[in-house]
């Protein structure tokens, strides 16, 4: 906020609903008016004594990068400027991603795109989690978390997996049979749990620990890794029984996928703006480096927000935010 030079108004930038920020003025008795709207989103920085207005204009993007199968270099896959990768098909040929809307809108759109850079195909609205191993379905919830859906990636009708009393959260994964899903949800007022559900019908079954913020099903469908950001992941048998650790996995490291043989986990560790991706053998803790991922252009970039890797470790995709600002001096505003 800043005072107009004569002290009669306070000027500020704000947005209502899904609008972009504009410059407003308010008198001390509460009367408000729009001073000006400009292209893009602006923040008021200051007003000089002679009435010139200093604003910053932000170009905020969520960018998506992928290494397709067999490629020797990465390929930019950002679609409309706010793309967050959710999953890759097992062969790395297709990327599932969420496209957010500008201006802070809560709704977002779900897209599927070939990693060769072909145009994206819109699947629906909501938040995508993962692709089924057979490539026919995308697991997703609506933006408010009140519905869980299996969206077809081709012809067909969506399947509504919603059950009464469930609020769906950030974890969603498929079993190798492409018929069962693993997801996190709050049921009624209970703590956050992981559940297994058959997409053909039936009720969810609670599995694993409380409050898990990430999880993934093994290639044989018998186990899952699950954990929270404040501790290392454990391996849980889905048929019941005690959890076991992944030897050598540290608190700052988290699994993002299983290897094809189910004996190792593909993990990530953040290091500044970059993330190291490696394979760790569950029984022995033996490590094999895979990739060090980061954007080449670091101007305005954040640490990586999402990383997905194929089970063979040969293809990957990641997303990050970029915020570039310009300063403008505006004359003549009243």
Relevant terms:
334 residues, mainly beta, Neuraminidase, five-stranded antiparallel β-sheet, four-stranded antiparallel β-sheet, 0% helix
Question: H/E order of the elements?
Answer: EEEEEEEEEEEEEEEEEEEEEEEEEEEEE
Name of the top-level CATH class of the largest domain: Mainly Beta
Q: How much helical structure, as a percent, in the residues? A: under 10%
Radius of gyration: 23 Å
Euclidean distance between termini CA atoms: 16 Å
Number of helices: 0
Query: Residue ranges: pLDDT <50 for 5 or more in a row?
Result: none
Describe the 3D structure.
The chain is an all-beta fold. It folds into two domains: 2-51, no CATH class; 62-241 and 305-320, Neuraminidase (6 Propeller), CATH 2.120.10.30. It has strands at 2-3, 9-14, 22-27, 32-36, 41-47, 53-67, 75-76, 83-88, 94-100, 108-114, 121-125, 127-131, 137-141, 148-152, 159-160, 166-174, 180-187, 192-198, 205-207, 214-217, 223-227, 234-237, 244-245, 253-258, 264-271, 274-281, 287-293, 306-309, 316-330. Strands 5, 6, 7, 28 and 29 form a five-stranded antiparallel beta sheet that branches. The two termini are 16 Å apart. The mean pLDDT is 93.
């Amino acid at each position: 906020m800043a005072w107009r030079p004569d002290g009669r108004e306070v000027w500020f930038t704000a947005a209502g609903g899904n609008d972009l920020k504009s410059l407003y003025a308010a008198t001390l008795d509460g009367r408000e008016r729009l001073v000006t709207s400009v292209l893009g989103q602006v923040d008021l920085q200051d007003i000089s004594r002679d009435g010139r207005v200093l604003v910053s204009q932000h170009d905020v993007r969520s960018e998506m990068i992928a290494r397709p199968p067999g490629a020797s270099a990465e390929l930019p896959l950002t679609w409309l400027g706010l793309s967050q990768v959710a999953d890759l098909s097992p062969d790395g040929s297709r990327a599932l991603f969420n496209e957010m809307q500008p201006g802070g809108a809560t709704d977002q759109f779900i897209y599927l795109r070939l990693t060769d850079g072909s145009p994206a195909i819109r699947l629906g609205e909501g938040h995508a989690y993962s692709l089924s191993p057979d490539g026919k379905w995308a697991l997703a919830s609506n933006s408010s978390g009140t519905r869980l859906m299996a969206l077809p990636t081709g012809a067909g009708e969506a399947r509504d997996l919603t059950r009464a009393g469930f609020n769906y959260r950030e974890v969603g994964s498929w079993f190798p049979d492409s018929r069962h899903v693993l997801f996190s949800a709050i049921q009624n007022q209970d703590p956050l749990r992981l559940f297994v559900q058959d997409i053909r019908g039936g009720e969810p079954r609670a599995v694993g620990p409380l409050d898990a913020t990430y999880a993934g099903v093994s290639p044989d469908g018998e186990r899952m890794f699950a954990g929270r950001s404040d501790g290392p992941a454990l391996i849980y048998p889905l048929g019941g029984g005690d959890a076991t650790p992944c030897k050598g996995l540290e608190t700052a490291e988290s699994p993002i996928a299983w290897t094809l043989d189910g004996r190792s986990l593909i993990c990530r560790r953040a290091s500044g703006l970059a993330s190291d991706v490696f394979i760790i053998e569950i029984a022995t803790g033996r490590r094999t480096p895979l990739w060090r991922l980061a954007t080449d252009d670091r101007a305005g970039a954040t640490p990586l927000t999402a990383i997905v890797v194929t089970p063979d470790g040969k293809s990957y995709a990641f997303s990050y935010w970029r915020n570039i600002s310009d300063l403008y001096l505006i004359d003549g505003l009243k």
